[in-house]
Structures are given as C-alpha cells and as structure tokens.
Task: inverse folding
C-alpha cells in the first residue's frame, strides 16, 4: 500500500493527463476554422453534457479498477437501465419511480457481478464478460428487440443544453456528475472503505491477512459501480427520449480508457477520480473538436488510440523510476 | 517530474500536434481548390452510418452538389453505425460549430427531434433525408417515395406474369417504415388493378438477414409449389428469395421482382433470374438535400416534401446508361 505521503507523487501522476487535456483544448482553440467556437461557453456546456454518461460510469469503474477488478458489463448495464426506465414510464409509473427502477436495476447487475466474482472465485474479466451479454440480452428482451417510445416527462429535461429554470446554469445532469464525483472522491480517499478498496487492489492476500474483509469490499465496489451505471442509464434515457437496447454498444471500452488515461492501473491499487474525469474530458473534447473540424471518424479513433498508449507509457515510465 | 518523463511526454504530444496540424493543412488545401470567390456556405451532412454503399452514394451526391454550388460539405456520421446517442452528439457539435445548415438522415424518428428543434431554434436550418422525423420542425424532407416503389414493383410483376398468376408478397420486418410503405404500395396496386393475380402469401416476414429470408422462401416454396411470382421489399430479402429459387432450380421460372441493388442482384438480373429491381437514387438524395438547403438559406421557397424517385431496372433496360448509373452509382468520382 502506498497511500501515506503520496501527495506529491499524486500531483506528479495527475500532471500527465492534465497536460494532455490542456494540449487538446489548446490545439483546437488555435485552429483558425473553429477558434471562436470551440472555447465558446455554449460549446463547453455541450461537451460537459455529452460527458455526463461516460463520466458517471467511469466514476464507478475507477473504484473497480482501484480494487483490482474490471467491469466489461458497464455499458450493457446502462442500456438495460435505459430500457427499463422507458418500459416503466409506459406502464404508467411516475418518472421519479421509473428512474429509481433504472438505478436499482443497475445496482442489481453490479451486485450480481460482485457476488459471482467472490462466490465462484472467478476472475472479474470472465464474470463481467458474461454479464455484458446477459444484461444486453435482457435489455433487448424487455424492449422486444426494438426501441421503446415513452411519453416526454421532466426526466427528459435532465440532459438539455439549456436547463429550464435558468438559474441552474447547466443541465441537472452536469450537477449530478459534479455531485457524484465529489462523493466518490471522498469515498475513495477519506473513508475506511476507500482505503480497503486500495488495499484489495494493491495486494489482496496481504489485505486479507490484515483483517480486511475482501469479499465484502468487492461486492460493495461492484454494487456501487452498478448503481452509477444505472444512473447513467437514466441519463441516457433522458437524452434519447426513447429506451434503446442497442445504445452504448462498446462504450465500456471508452469508460475503461478514461480511467486508464487518468492514471488508473489495470493491475489495481491506483487511480483517482480527478484523473478519470480528466480522461473523460480529453476524449469528449477530442470528439467534439474533430466533429467541429469535420474530420472523419477514423481520424479521431486513431488519435484516441494513440493517447491511450501514450498515457499508459508515461505511467509505466513513472513507475520504473520510483 | 523527472527529466526523462518530461522528455518523453514532450515527444509524444509533439507527435500528436504535428499529426493534427498536418491533417488540418491537408483539409485547408482541399478547401482552397473548391472554394469560389464569394462566401462559401458550410453545410453538415449527417448520415445514419458511413460504411454502407448506400451512404457512400449519398455522400457522393452531397459532394457533387457542394462542388457545383460552392458549398463546403462536412460529412460526419455517428462513430458507430446505427448509434442514436452518437448521432445526437454529432448534431449538437455542429450546432456549436454554427454551420450554415444541417442535412440529417435521422436514425430515430423520435430521439433526433430535440437536437433538430434546438438547431432550428438557433437559426440553423435542417433538411431531413431518407427517413422521416416526427413533427414538422424542419425545412424539407427529401426521400424516396417508397409507396410508389411498391406500385412500380406490382406493375412490373403483373407485366411479366401477363396479368394473372399466383404470387408471394414477402415482407421485411415489423415496424420498418420504409419497407412497410413498399409492401403497402405493392399490395394495394395488385388488389386494385390486377384481379387475375392471387396472393398466396402476404403476411410473412423475412427478417433482417439474407439467411432468414432464404429459409422463409424455402419453406414457402415447399408449401406452395404452384407459385409463379415473388416480390421482396429490400436487398436482403430479395437476395434470400433469389438464393431459395436457385436452390430449388426455379430461378428464372418463378418471376422475382425485388428492391435495391448489389453485385449479386445485378448478376441475377443479367441472367434473367430476376425480372425487375426497383431502384432508389441515393446520389440524387444527397444532391437534392444539399441543394434544397442552400435554396432555403438563400431565401428561395422550397417544398416540404421532395421525392427523389424510384426506377424499375429490368433485364431489357439494365444496360442503358441512366439505369446503369443507378445500379452501380459512380461515386468514385466524388468520394474515395
């Protein structure tokens, strides 16, 4: 465990991703075609809104990766929640309750992940790979292989670019993202549970010998992450106004990439909420900038790929010199 | 931070910058060659996906319109095919960019409503193409008249059957709007205009793949060996029906009229195994959508609904240049 006295090193670790984010923003704001548009407040708001869904999932993924696990089912979990919200609303359930159904479904899938990982003693990769198919299949089943149209409600106002009560300044979704980032940062850094998550990720055996109930920690970690994916599903429904079982196909890789770019280590024991958010924003600004420039999709895929490799390379270099 | 890391990070990010700047420079080079003296309008054209042939032809049409009318075209689809959420993001990003107009083929008649409303509210006109959008908060809807396509197919099948016979109508998929219109046009024309033609099957769905259409047609052929003609409403169901007929040794004997084209279907048309293919004109769709948008921007009146036409290709007319260009759109000239 390397937590105490790591403040300086943490700052050094964060510098990498931050430099990346600043570079991306600087480059696009220097582009003559879009310079006046890119750093426009409206555009920044729009990028932030687009980031909410990936960010919520990535917060949970950070916790999982810190504890030495991985969750491939995050995006399918999100889709299931998105479909269930639409389904519930069509049944006449009030929107708030429908949203809770979505979040609860996410939590259930997360709990199942943790439960199976600890009880069956299987590696997280396999369990969540299976769950990826199960959750996606369930979503398609509930939606009968189509999208579900649902009547508009206040739920669909959560992700608008210009919020209804204008004193909110940005969409409620962004405020939720900020709120949960703070909650997760405190949880990860300031609580016993957070320390235990780091301990399990750094060295599970030692942690268990020191009296950490590793199984309980793991189940909690996956459940919390599942709840956040469920919430992201509600946000996705809000944005789409329909329940779409094929939404977020492959998004789990973007989520994992955000954590990794932000300094999370796939071998566990490392990662930070701030870093993850920076990772999310690097990708969101890149996507936004590339679209504004009218660059083809393959171009931005190549750039993001390069950034992932670059970020991890830097991370490894930093480790070697410790 | 240690000097070595600094060095490495500097190198890596320098490389990325160089990459981006080169790309930008290339782009600027492109623009200079097409730009005219006056102000060039910037128009975003957003398809449902970027890899299908159909969308490449639409792209070519849009680029052609851009070249002729002096409009700069931004072609950008959702990063993953058929991803509603990503298409919303793309529309939003172009609103931020403040392009002069947007042409959109909505992946969802409902989910794309809000981004389109937002664009219109911010004074960016939107033309919808290919698939409909709920409501009518857009400038114009440019698409194939699918019902008319079904009518054409019915007349062609009746023609090759001599106005009488027993046929299958193979449907595509429940809830697919464009093909439902084609089936409806076909069905209504047959029942209204050709009393000598009997529909043995009219409520069976082929499903999304060639394989499922193949199986359905096989089963139907076993059950109704007396069939004389088949209509299938899209490319995959036409090809599936064709494969089943070939398998039963009935290709050419049972008359087949289909929709859309592909290399295999063109071959079958050449061999007289298919008697007609109703063809859309995606290049014209891309071209007209951009043109209508520009008309609106420059203050000329435009029609709310624009039909891009359907043409029947037959073994007899398939070598005429105007039909050839629909069977195999020559988009290589405009897009790579």
Result:
């Amino acid at each position: 465990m390397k937590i105490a006295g790591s403040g300086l090193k943490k700052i050094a670790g964060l510098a990498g991703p931050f430099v990346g984010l600043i570079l991306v923003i600087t480059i696009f704001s220097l582009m003559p075609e879009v310079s006046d548009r890119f750093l426009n407040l409206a555009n920044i708001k729009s990028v932030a809104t687009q980031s909410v869904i990936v960010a919520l999932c990535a917060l949970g993924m950070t916790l999982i990766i810190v504890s030495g696990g991985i969750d491939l089912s995050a995006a399918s979990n999100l889709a299931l929640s998105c479909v269930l919200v639409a389904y519930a609303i069509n049944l006449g359930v009030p929107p708030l309750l429908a949203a809770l159904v979505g979040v609860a479904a996410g939590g259930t899938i997360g709990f199942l992940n943790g439960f199976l990982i600890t009880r069956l003693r299987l590696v997280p990769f396999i369990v969540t790979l299976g769950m990826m198919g199960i959750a996606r299949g369930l979503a398609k089943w509930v939606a009968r292989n189509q999208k579900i149209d649902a009547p508009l409600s206040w739920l669909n106002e959560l992700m608008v670019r210009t919020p209804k009560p204008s004193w909110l300044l940005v969409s409620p979704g962004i405020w939720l993202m900020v709120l949960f980032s703070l909650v997760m940062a405190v949880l990860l850094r300031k609580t016993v549970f957070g320390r235990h998550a780091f301990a399990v990720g750094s060295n599970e055996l030692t942690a268990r010998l020191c009296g950490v109930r590793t199984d309980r920690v793991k189940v909690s970690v996956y459940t919390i992450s599942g709840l956040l994916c469920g919430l992201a599903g509600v946000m996705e429904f809000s944005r789409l106004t329909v329940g779409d079982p094929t939404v977020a196909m492959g998004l789990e890789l973007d989520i994992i990439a955000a954590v990794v770019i932000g300094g999370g280590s796939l071998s566990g024991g490392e990662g930070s909420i701030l870093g993850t958010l920076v990772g999310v924003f690097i990708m969101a600004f890149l996507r936004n900038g590339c679209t504004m420039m009218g660059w083809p999709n393959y171009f931005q895929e190549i750039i993001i790929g390069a950034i992932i490799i670059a970020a991890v390379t830097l991370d490894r270099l930093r480790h070697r010199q410790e | 931070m240690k000097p070595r890391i600094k060095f490495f990070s500097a190198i890596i990010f320098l490389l990325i910058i160089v990459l981006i700047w080169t790309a930008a420079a290339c782009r600027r080079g492109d623009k200079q060659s097409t730009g005219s003296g006056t102000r060039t309008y910037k128009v975003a054209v957003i398809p449902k996906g970027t890899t299908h042939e159909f969308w490449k032809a639409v792209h070519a049409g849009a680029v052609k319109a851009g070249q002729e009318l002096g409009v700069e075209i931004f072609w950008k689809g959702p990063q993953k095919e058929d991803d509603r959420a990503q298409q919303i993001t793309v529309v939003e990003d172009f609103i931020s960019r403040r392009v002069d107009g947007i042409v959109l083929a909505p992946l969802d008649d409902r989910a794309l409503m809000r981004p389109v409303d937002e664009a219109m509210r911010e004074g960016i006109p939107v033309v919808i193409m290919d698939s409909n959008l709920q409501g009518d908060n857009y400038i114009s809807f440019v698409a194939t008249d699918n019902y008319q396509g079904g009518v054409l197919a019915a007349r062609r099948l009746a023609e090759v059957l001599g106005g009488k016979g027993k046929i299958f109508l193979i449907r595509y998929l429940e809830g697919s709007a464009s093909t439902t219109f084609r089936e409806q046009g076909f069905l209504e024309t047959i029942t209204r205009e050709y009393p000598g033609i009997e529909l043995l099957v009219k409520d069976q769905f082929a499903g999304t793949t060639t394989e499922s259409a193949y199986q359905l047609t096989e089963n139907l052929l076993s059950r109704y060996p007396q069939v004389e003609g088949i209509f299938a409403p899209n490319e995959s169901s036409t090809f599936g029906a064709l494969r089943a007929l070939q398998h039963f040794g009935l290709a050419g004997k049972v008359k087949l009229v289909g929709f859309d084209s592909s290399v295999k279907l063109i071959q079958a048309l050449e061999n007289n195994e298919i008697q007609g293919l109703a063809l859309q004109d995606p290049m014209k769709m891309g071209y007209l959508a951009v043109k209508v948008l520009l008309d609106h921007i420059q203050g000329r009146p435009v029609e709310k609904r624009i039909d891009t036409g359907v043409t029947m290709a037959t073994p007899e007319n398939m070598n005429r240049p105007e039909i050839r260009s629909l069977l195999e759109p020559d988009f290589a000239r405009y897009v790579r």
Q: What stands out?
A: Chain B touches chain A through 45 residues (CB under 8 Å). The first strand of chain B starts at residue 41 and ends at 46. Confidence is low (pLDDT under 50) at residues 28-37 of chain B.
